[in-house]
Structures
1.
Amino acid sequence: MLLAGEAWQQRFRDFGSEAWRLETMPAYNVPQEEDEISAFLAGERINPHTHSNDYTEDLRRVRGEGKSKGRVHIVTRPLSTYLQYEFMYYRPHVWAGEDIRIMDVTGRDNPLAGVQDFWMFDKKEVVLMHYETDGTQIGREVYEGDVTPYLGYQRIALAESVPFEEYVKGLDV
C-alpha cells in the first residue's frame, strides 16, 4: 500500500510508543528545503538555542506523551553539503527530544549496505521510503512482510552509531 497525505501524517500522530527512521543517503532533494539550503550556502545559520518550528513542537508533544522518536543517519566523511545543512537542525531536534544517532562508515564496511531508508512504527509496521539516486522521494510503501529483518537493522544501526552530540564534538557544525 502506498502512503501519502493524511494516511502518512496519521502514522506520526497515532503511533503508540516509538517512531524510528533509518537514513542512508548523503543528500535528500526536498523542494520545501530549497530556500533554507540557499541561505545555508550563503552563510546563514539558525540559532539552535532559540530555533523552534512545527517539527520541534511536535517532538516536545511526543516526548510529553511518553513516546520516542529517533533516527540513525549513516554517513561518510567528508560530509555532504546537505548533511552539513541537516546537522544544523539536528541539534535543536535533539534538544526537543529526538534521539538522533550517527553511524559513520568512513573507511570501514557498512553492515547495512543495501538497506533502504525506512520508518518503523511501534516495532510492528515498516514504511519503505523510495528515492531516486539524487535523493528525490518517489514514494512511501507499507511493507507487507515480516518486520523481523527491520528490527535487526534497527539493532545494528543503534549498536554501530553514536549520539549526535557525541559525533559532532570537535566538528564545525
Note: The chain has one domain: 5-168.
2.
Amino acid sequence: MRAWPGEHRLAVGLSGGVDSSLTAALLVAAGWQVEGLTLWLMSGKGACCAEGLVDAAGICEQLGVPHHVVDSRERFQQQIVDFLVEGYGGGVTPLPCSRCNREVKFTPMLEWAEAELGIGRLATGHYARVRLADPVVPAGRHQLLRGLDGHKDQSYFLYDLPQEVLSRLVFPLGELTKADTRLEAEALGLRTARKPESQDLCLADHHGSMKAFLDAYLPPRQGQIVLVDGTVVGDHDGIEHFTIGQRKGLGVAWSEPLHVVRLDGAMNRVVVAPRSEAARSSCVVGAINWISIPPPEAPIELEVQVRYRSAPVAAQLIPLEHTASDWAAGRPHRARLVFLEEQFSITPGQAAVFYAGEVVLGGGLIQGHPSDPVHQ
C-alpha cells in the first residue's frame, strides 16, 4: 500500500463488518489519510442498517479518522428494491449485488467524496484486485483481477464497473485470504474482528428471508406448473418463489424428479422438466460491460462463470447485433455464449462473467436461451 501510485488520501466504504474495518486499519497503518464513508441504505436490523452504522462509527473512532454517513435510502429503494420486485414479478431472477455496486455504492460514493471532501479515491473490503494501466501505454485499460482467495473472490460482483471508477479504486484485501483478515483484525484489536459474516443478501437479512421480502411487495398470484409441452402438473402461488434449476419444494408428484427450466412471466407459469431436458448448450447475454478489454468484434474463447459460486467453464463468445432497446438503455453489447459442455441452471437475470485466467474480461446479464420464446 505504501508504494501505490498517486495521492494517498481516500475514502473507505465502511459497512461495519470485519472486511471493511481491516481495509481502513491497513491503510491507516500504511500512512494513508483515511476518511470513513457509510451508506445508510435501510432502516432497521441488518448489516447495512443500524448495527452496521454503529460498528462503522466505532471503527472510525478506534482508528482516529473522520466518519461520514450518507443517506442513500431513496437511491437504494429505486435502484435495488424496485428493480428486484419488477424482475421477480416478471419471471426473472435478478442479481442485485453487481447493480448495487454500480448504481448505489462505488460511483455515488466517489461522487460524494469528491464533491464534499475533495477526495478522488475509494477503498473497500472486496476480495478483488486492480491492475492499473501502464501510464506510458496510450489508451491503456485498467484491469480487474480475481482476489487471491479463490473461496472468497468477489470479482464476479464487480464486472459492471466502468473504467473511470476502476482507476480510482483500492482493494487492500485482494492479496489476503479471509483467514488472514480475521487474524490481522485480531492482531490490531479491531472491535469487529469476531463479528460474524452475513450469509444472505442484505434484503433477506433485513426482512428475515427472501420469501418474506418478496411477500411484502408482491401479492400472491395463483398460477400453473406445467411441463414443456404445456401439460399441467401442479399449481403455485407466485413465480417469484421459484428459480431455474430448482427441484425441491415444487409440490409436484411425478414419475421422475422435475426441475424448473423456465419462469413464464407473461403466462404466470412455472415450466418444469426432467434434469435430462434442463441442460443448455448456449445462452444469450445482454447489457455487457467490457471492463478489462475493448469489446471484441469476432468470436473469442474464454471462461465464463454463470453464478457466483459456480466454477468457471470454457465457452465461445459470439458478438451479436444490439437491439433497439439495448441501444436506448445505453447497454448495446450483446453476445451468444456457446458452452464446451452443456450447463445446468442457466438463469435469466443472473450475471455471466467472462474471465481469462485471473483477469475479468467483462460480463453481462443472462437474457435466456436462444430457443426460448422471447429469442425466437
Note: Residues 96-117 form the longest helix (22 residues).
